[in-house]
Amino acid sequence: MTAPSAAPRYEQLADDIEAAVRRGVFAAGERIPSVRRASVQHGVSIKTVVHAYALLESRGVIESRPQSGFFVKARPVARNGSPARAEGAARGTAQGSSQGEKGRRAGAEKVPMEPAPNAAPAPVDVSRLVLSTLRSIVAQDAVPLGSPYPDPALFPWRRINQYANAIARRHAGWNLIDDLPPGNPELIRQIARRYAENGADVDPEEIVITVGATEAINLSLQAVAKPGDTVVVESPTYYAMLHAIERLGMRAIEVSTHPDTGIDLDALERVLARKKVAACMVMPNFQNPLGFRMPEANLRRLVALAEAHDLPVIENDVYQELYFGPTRPSSLKQFDTRGLVLHCASFSKSLSASYRIGWALPGRYRAQVEKLKFLNTLTTPSVPQVALADYLRHDGYDRHLRRLRRFYREQARLMRAMIERFFPAGTRTTDPQGGYVLWVELPPRVDSMRLYRAALAQGITIGPGYMFSMRNDFHHYIRLNYSYPWTAQTEAALKTLGELVARMA
Hints:
Layout: H1 9-23, H2 35-42, H3 46-59, E1 62-65, E2 69-72, E3 122-123, H4 127-139, H5 157-170, H6 185-197, E4 208-211, H7 212-224, E5 230-235, H8 239-247, E6 251-258, E7 262-263, H9 265-274, E8 279-282, H10 296-309, E9 313-316, E10 341-346, E11 357-361, H11 366-377, H12 382-394, H13 397-422, E12 428-429, E13 437-441, H14 448-457, E14 463-464, E15 477-481, H15 488-504
Parallel strand pairs: 5-6, 5-8, 8-9, 9-10
Antiparallel strand pairs: 1-2, 3-6, 4-11, 6-7, 10-11, 12-13, 13-15, 14-15
Helix pairs in contact: 1-3, 2-3, 5-12, 6-12, 7-8, 7-11
Protein name: Histidinol-phosphate aminotransferase
EC number: 2.6.1.9
GO molecular function, one term: pyridoxal phosphate binding
């Protein structure tokens, strides 16, 4: 993220776009976002964008084509006095609903966070439970309400496979060196362009391609902490975060996380004042399992806390494209000026789960993450990288995403309505603002592991709350997946699940 400037806003915008062109985010001959779209992306008036584009035309950076829009000129003219951006500088600097916890009865209170998590570091051991749960989901021919994965039928996998097959035929003797970190240059450029089109200033030089977001998270944690160190996590948190801590022999402190606003920043500040913490791991956007969108004021405050304590923050933004609102949400990365945010994301939840392509924007830790990528897994396969780059360049990713978001939004509404209809009094749900999972609080006497086993016997899978914490704080919570099309089988499964809950309650 660029530093604040006293220059007029249109000039700052022009400088940012020109810098993106110089870095290769927008290639010669490519169209840049329309005036109206740029206005929405950057949060400025149409008049400001018009002035910025006129300035860029005068500099020889872009050109206007009647009835077509604005395009990058074949050879942008370098000008004196443009903002200084040293090559590779991004290696050391970063880029910068009401809760709706409506119970099944009107006026129900928001879902509480159960016993407040302790602020004492604890060893982590959740992998066995998660592995056994995932195996049962795969092994059983069951209704996949407990699956952590989106329905693959929603993705354009045939088209992507066509690109992959064509690439494999063209490059039968692929050279391993083409796979080396940081990754395929065209895919990196397409990722950077995606951020730029959504109003985020990202330098392609900072991006490291990984095998999914899980590897990005593991590499990021390994880059900033060592075995025995203490890491702060949300509570509840996505179990992949706990897996990373467990795998590296670290300890965790859970901080209560509100289902509307995210991690309790007051509690986090108290922890940081009393404990030596190596890193903080969060999911600010559409957190799994709560589904909230962290308010921008909270994002800014979290980054300020990180800067005050020189604390690395690992941001899992894997659901960034699956928003239900009109615009893509901000990320911690956009407010980070000191390179402390290690931003992790992937295409696994929005485009192709099978190809496992993710990336990290590790800020000041970029060189270490690239080195660890090389030492840990050597490469990320090239064919999937190039296939996704081709799809992003030639096909309608935005059209696909619009359909996907509409579908998920309607599915979330439908599943909440069915839970209200079939589950007993005392059941409450979150109101996701994006993603495809729903967090459900059951009556306190219901044990989610007992429910998990009873449901599995009926051909239904669920995600028991035990997986999302190191302790038993969420023993009467479950996570449900609503990405699969609604069928009579799905409705029957929810009805059966509600009956099981009623018996246990």
